[in-house]
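Researcher: Sequence recovery benchmark, item below. Answer with residues only.
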């Protein structure tokens, strides 16, 4: 494993260092539902605001994939970093429903422009034989930063939510400076003059393994996004705990990934990717389904542990699978469509989850388990078709 890590190039580690700084401050959205409730807004407003964030991400998937292939990886990263900082400051000083919705949309747009460019650059820099390891390193860095950031955020939120927004903006600016001065101009695959969606869509429309992967990703992402919306309401409402406990649970998810995901790739990279993804998606949904049977701290911790095991099994494999399917000249757009499924789910998942949560929290968590199994079924159908 250490020998593989030494083979990864310096620009990749520079990108990872910047990602750590960025993700350390990327803790606003998970706490946004709690913040809006403290301000006295009804749950519907929280749903609209989180939905606007998802809508921004939806637009980012389309625009980000195009920009990544058209103007290059580095320029797209810079637009994302500095644009997200401005959006976060606007969100920090929002004081009305329209301003929260507009700020959330702009934040979702600018923040999610980053991912098609970052994932495409990682795939550009790393050969196929090391991509599972590289994507696991990427997730390790992101989750280590997220865990540290969320645990810190739980303490900061107790005194001032506004400082969370300001800190997020500051860390995003730092990442932009690292990209600007640390990555050489033109790094990654050269920009293409044939980067429009008109050329890519006919190819994507015929790529059934990819389309089924996108469908499964949407389902499991809708489940996963409950951790950033309804789970916070469960912890601070039905479970009778506080924002510190919520931060701890999200931090536990990140710390498990930090310590266990990279060693786990020694096992996952030797097995069939479709079946690993199906197993992971089933566990991810099943973890939250446990909350239908109890909402105490012990059950919350168990739910996060099971969910995280599923995430660790499926996520690096899924990212690598998509990168390997994508033609080199269309990698940004493939990554954009893959991100599109997560960003659509970021809007649909919380809104549907909040509606179900308002009717019955137990119904929501049971439905999460069913949805995880449906995602696994899609992957297994694809695996059988490939035999």
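Model:
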């Amino acid at each position: 494993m250490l020998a593989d890590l030494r083979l990864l190039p310096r620009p990749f580690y520079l990108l990872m260092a910047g990602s750590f700084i960025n993700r350390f401050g990327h803790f606003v959205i998970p706490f946004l539902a709690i913040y809006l409730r403290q301000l006295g807004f009804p749950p519907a407003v929280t749903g609209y605001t989180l939905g606007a964030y998802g809508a921004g991400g939806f637009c980012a998937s389309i625009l980000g994939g195009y920009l990544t292939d058209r103007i290059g990886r580095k320029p797209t990263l810079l637009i994302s970093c500095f644009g997200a900082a401005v959006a976060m400051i606007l969100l920090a000083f929002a004081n009305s429903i329209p301003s929260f919705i507009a700020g959330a949309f702009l934040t979702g747009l600018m923040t999610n422009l980053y991912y098609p460019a970052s994932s495409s650059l990682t795939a550009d820099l790393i050969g196929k034989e090391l991509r599972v390891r590289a994507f696991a390193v990427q997730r390790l860095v992101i989750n280590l930063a997220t865990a540290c950031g969320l645990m810190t955020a739980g303490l900061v939120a107790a005194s001032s939510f506004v400082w969370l927004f300001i800190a997020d903006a500051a860390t995003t600016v730092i990442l932009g400076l690292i990209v600007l001065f640390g990555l050489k101009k033109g790094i990654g695959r050269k920009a293409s003059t044939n980067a429009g969606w008109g050329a890519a869509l006919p190819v994507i429309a015929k790529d059934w393994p990819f389309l089924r992967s996108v469908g499964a990703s949407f389902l499991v992402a809708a489940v996963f996004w409950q951790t950033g919306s309804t789970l916070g309401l469960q912890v601070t409402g039905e479970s009778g705990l506080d924002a510190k406990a919520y931060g701890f649970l999200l931090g536990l998810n990140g710390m498990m990934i930090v310590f266990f995901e990279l060693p786990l790739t020694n096992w996952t990279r030797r097995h069939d990717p479709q079946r690993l993804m199906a197993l992971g998606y089933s566990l991810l949904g099943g973890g939250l389904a446990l909350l239908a049977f109890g909402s105490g701290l012990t059950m919350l911790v168990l739910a996060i542990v099971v969910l995280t095991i599923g995430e660790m099994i499926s996520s690096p494999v899924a990212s690598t699978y998509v990168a390997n399917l994508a033609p080199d000249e269309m990698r940004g757009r493939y990554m954009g469509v893959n991100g599109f499924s997560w960003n659509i789910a970021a809007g649909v998942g919380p809104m549907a989850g909040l509606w179900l949560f308002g009717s019955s929290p137990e119904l929501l968590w049971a439905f999460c388990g069913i949805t995880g199994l449906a995602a696994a079924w899609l992957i297994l159908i694809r695996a059988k078709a490939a035999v």
